[in-house]
Amino acid sequence: MLFDLKTMIQPFTALSPQQKKLDHLIDKIEQQKQELHQWQQAEEDLQQYTHKTFMPVYHELHGVLFKQLEQLWKHLQETTFSKAELVVLDEKIQYLANYLKDSQAMSVQQAHKVNEIFAYYQQRAEHAQFRKSQKKVNELETFFKSENPSDLADAEVFEEWESDHFQQAREQARLKRQQEKQEQAAAMAEQSLKTVYLKIAAIIHPDREVNDVKKIKKTELLQRANEAYAEQDLRGGSGNLNNTYK
Question: Which pTM does this prediction carry?
Fold first, then answer.
């Protein structure tokens, strides 16, 4: 069977303004899709890179913080501190326990110890609040039962002053003995955190990064690390860095 093949030449038709606008939008959408894909790919590559190189340092940082917590907790149990020193020490221990309680970089034994310390301070805070409320109730009952409430108040003020005066004398006697030990512990902790910070900065420094997307990400990470080290010895900032790579 024979067929006659004919070449059909279609006349050129100029595109309408609406068609040109539509084609332009289609091209723009395709370009944005490609750019989005490139960003997503670059972010995935950066996450894989940082997970491989940064996470070991992150685990080391949490190890340093846990060691600090463990040492401070041990000193609290074995050493006699002044009232002012106990306030500072309790705040430090409570902060570290609160920070490390959600960490995924510790062993089961370490996590158990952190939860034990965290629970202790929670229970102590609840007990202190209960005692404070109970004290107010007792004071009201005593006030209404006392024949001369003003005398009772004066006696309580004197007793409180005498107790504070005696406590201050004990603090002054202990201060010299405790100061050297605290300075030594603080110096060791600062040196450990500084070492970890330098490792972090070396890994995520953006100067040698040729990929623009990764360079932006690394610049942000380095800025967070710098701010965290300046403010709270990497403890505050490392939590943010942790969330970045979870």
Answer: 0.42
Contacts of 241 (CB under 8 A, 6+ apart): 54, 58, 221, 224, 225, 228
pLDDT tens digits for range 165-195: 556 655 665 676 667 666 766 666 666 677 7
Domain boundaries, the chain: 47-244
Tokens 């009772």 belong to: 152
Asked whether the beta carbons of 60 and 46 are under 8 A apart, the reply is no
Could you tell me the two tokens for 18?
């609406």
Of the ranges 37-51, 128-142, 145-159, which one carries the lowest mean pLDDT score? 145-159
Cα Rg, the chain, nearest whole Å: 33
Amino acid at position 89, single letter: L
Q: Which two tokens stand for residue 147?
A: 């024949």
Residue 65, both tokens: 């913080």
> Are 49 and 41 a contacting pair, CB within 8 Å?
no
> What integer pLDDT is reported at residue 97 of this predicted model?
92
What is the share, in percent, of the chain residues with pLDDT greater than 90? 14
Tokens at residue 97, please? 């326990």
Write down the residue that tokens 């000193």 correspond to.
75
- Residue 54 CB neighbours (<10 A): 19
Q: Are 228 and 237 in contact (CB under 8 A)?
A: yes
H or E, element range at 51: helix 17-53
C-alpha dihedral sign at 229, 231, 233, 237 = negative
